[in-house]
Amino acid sequence: MSTRLRDEVWALDRCSGCGACVAACSKGVLHWMDEEHPLLEEREKLLGLSRLKLRTCEVCEQFCELSCPRLVEWPIRPDGRMVSARATGVVRSGEVNDLIRAMLVAARSADLIDGVVMLDIDPWAVEPVTRVAASVEEIASTMGMQYLWAPVLGALNEAVFERELTHLAVVGPPCVAQGARRLSQSEHERLWPYREAIRAVISPFCTGIYRPNMITDLIEIAMGIERHRIRELRMQPREAKLAITLWDGTRTVAPLTEVELFTRQGCGHCDDYIGLAADVSVGVVGSAEGWATVVTRTPVGESLVQNAELFGLIETAPGVDEEAVRAAQMAKDRRTRAHAVDELKILMLDALAEPQKRAAVKREFAQLFGATASKPRVKEECDGFCNGC
Fold first, then answer.
1. Which fold, 3-71?
2. For 293-324, what is each residue's pLDDT tens digit?
3. Which of 48, 64, 79, 106 has its CA 20 to 30 A from that of 28?
4. Where are the domains of the chain?
């Protein structure tokens, strides 16, 4: 396993949870048991009565590092073309999921794609799962709320090697879009199957990805709604609420402030809210009620939108508040701030062993979070145990 992945991503809680490293691991020793980052499986071999640990990662070319989106600096891409859009097929809607579904159905009908890797909700367990949808019927019925976490790119191996799909669309939040883009731009020949298969990346705007235990802790325990009664979960960014629809038709909502308590730690290091790495991204910021904002950044993204219009599954119109979209991105200092937080963590750990660095920690904290450093009223006295002064 890459030491960079362990030291610069996992140890600093920067993992996006996209699943690219697990999919690319040639030894199959990375797996998910923890929601924050994958775990490394230590394998043993029996020689007589002796147990020897296999050094599986020492002879690996570290495909996990080559696929991780957190180990590269992402350039600021142009804004692209922005339009308002809404689905006009069987479902007439400005909901983000409905609009993405319409584009995917049109793309599959035109053979622009032969499959989709996306996030869905298991209707029985009401848990997020990754799906590979290869037919129009599967695509039309597969797409759950995109803000509950599951390692979306972990399904790539099923799509590429088991089902042998060659024209894939990947749907996921901006962190997933970055992971898919990292794989599709890889120069290593062992990763070429992913590069050749991924043809389009679609991303909804994102303000955070939530841990699946949100359903248990918030909806079941705090709100008293049994899991088997839930029919649909839908984010409503305009109202800052999570809408919960039950099978009996009853609807209730949870404030987004309560939902955000379950945000994954890796989201704190993300500087992309509108899918800059995607071919096309969709969100409600900047659009009127009943419409969504669509941003196309590549010819592929433009083709997806135009093809869906040709099939009569979406309609577009001008009138996007582009300044609102740029304000939502807030990319001005997010990257610098994320790196500064990492450096502060390291400095704080150093200060535990070297008390003379405590002043530096206070200065960095004040500069990073805008706190005013107050002068101590009494002089700090050494406790006499560390001998570091």
1. Alpha-Beta Plaits (3.30.70)
2. 999 999 999 999 999 999 999 999 998 998 88
3. 48
4. 3-71, 81-221+236-242+256-329, 334-369
Only one residue has tokens 């660095």, namely 357
The Cα–Cα gap between 192 and 375 comes to 58
Q: Does the CA dihedral 110-114-117-118 come out positive or negative?
A: positive
Is the distance from CB of 105 to CB of 313 less than 8 angstroms? yes
Q: Place 87 in a pLDDT band, splitting at 50, 70 and 90.
A: very high
pLDDT digits (tens, 9 = 90+) for 98-139: 999 999 999 999 999 999 999 999 988 899 999 999 999 999
Give the global pTM: 0.82
Q: How far apart are CA 358 and CA 353, in angstroms?
A: 10
Contact assessment for residue 140 and residue 107, using Cβ atoms and an 8 Å cutoff: no
Alpha carbons 31 and 42: distance in angstroms, whole number: 11
Residues 355/380, Cβ–Cβ less than 8 Å: no
